[in-house]
Design brief:
This protein is α+β, with helices and mostly antiparallel strands. The protein has two domains: 138 residues, no CATH class; 125 residues, Immunoglobulin-like, CATH 2.60.40.1240. The strands form four sheets. A five-stranded mixed beta sheet has the order 5-16-15-11-12, with no helix packed on it. Strands 6, 7, 8, 9 and 14 form a five-stranded antiparallel beta sheet that branches. It has a four-stranded antiparallel beta sheet with strand order 1-2-3-4. A hairpin with a 4-residue loop joins strand 2 and strand 3. Helix 3 runs antiparallel to helix 4.
Length: 273
């Protein structure tokens, strides 16, 4: 597998890693956790928002999976695939390996010195074993595989794969539209977000990567479908394209926004004053 990555040989790589199955399973697990974390406090508006969010998640699944598969192939063939885990350093990092075989299927658990686990499911092929599923903790720190970067509001951030982000300081938003009113005890805040796609390919971006955190350390990831105009929506962005708009969040009435956080596959960006 490592030799295939070094040689930029995607066809050999997929002999040892069933990319379709791994991506399908990982995306399903991530989206399931997103659904489980959705607010469900009995409020009718919260329930409506949760139902809409689950509907959008269902629609997004095929696109997210296809995008992930395309990115893996592109990065292996271009040589950009993350190669920090070379065989030598991997062996040194792993302190314990557990293997449980049942016929032609094996559960393999790798554990490092920090007692963090990576569970792999492998199946016996003709002359080799192939990874077809993996399981891992999707904690707050695990959701972004890259580094964390602190920036001031308005600064331009490199978020990977030739994409850039700018988040402005959130401001209070009041709407005369009854459908955009905050529920009792809450208020609306909007932040202007800019995405830039400087790559040569049309690619998908999602607002689900964004959240705001207040001075009381509460996080809010549920955004309004609408809000301050022009409202930004998840979607495709063409090569060399830029899109700008507002994302509106509902936060506690007596709270003040401390930061806007972007959590992506390559890094986490934390915007603050």
């Amino acid at each position: 597998m490592y030799k295939a990555v070094e040689a930029h040989d995607y066809e050999t790589f997929i002999r040892y890693v069933d990319v379709d199955s791994v991506i399908d399973n990982v995306v399903d697990k991530v989206l399931k956790e997103t659904e489980e974390e959705a607010s469900a406090d009995g409020d009718v508006w919260a329930e409506l928002g949760k139902s809409l969010a689950e509907g959008f998640i269902t629609l997004m699944k095929p696109r997210l999976k296809e995008e992930a598969k395309n990115q893996i192939r592109k990065q292996i063939e271009s040589g950009e695939f993350k190669k920090d885990y070379q065989p030598k350093s991997l062996v040194n990092a792993i302190t314990k390996i557990k293997v449980k075989k049942e016929g032609r299927v094996a559960d393999v658990v790798l554990m490092n010195e920090e007692n963090k686990e990576l569970s792999l499911k492998m199946r016996k092929m003709d002359r080799y074993w192939q990874v077809f599923d993996m399981d891992f903790e999707l904690g707050e720190e695990s959701k972004a595989s890259g580094e964390s970067q602190q920036l001031k509001f308005g600064e331009r951030a490199d978020i990977g794969r030739d994409w850039f982000l700018i988040a402005q300081e959130p401001e209070m938003y009041e709407s005369s539209d009854i459908w955009e009113s905050a529920k009792e005890g809450y208020k609306l805040v909007s932040t202007e977000i800019t995405y830039e796609n400087t790559s040569e390919e049309t690619s998908f971006f999602s607002l689900s990567n964004l959240k705001v955190k207040d001075t009381q350390n509460h996080s809010y990831s549920d955004y309004l479908f609408g809000g301050k105009e022009p409202a930004l929506e998840s979607g495709d962005l063409e090569p060399k394209g830029t899109v700008k708009g507002f994302v509106t969040f509902e936060i506690l009435k007596d709270a003040e926004v401390q930061s806007v956080i972007y959590t992506g596959a390559y890094k986490t960006i934390i915007y603050s004053k």
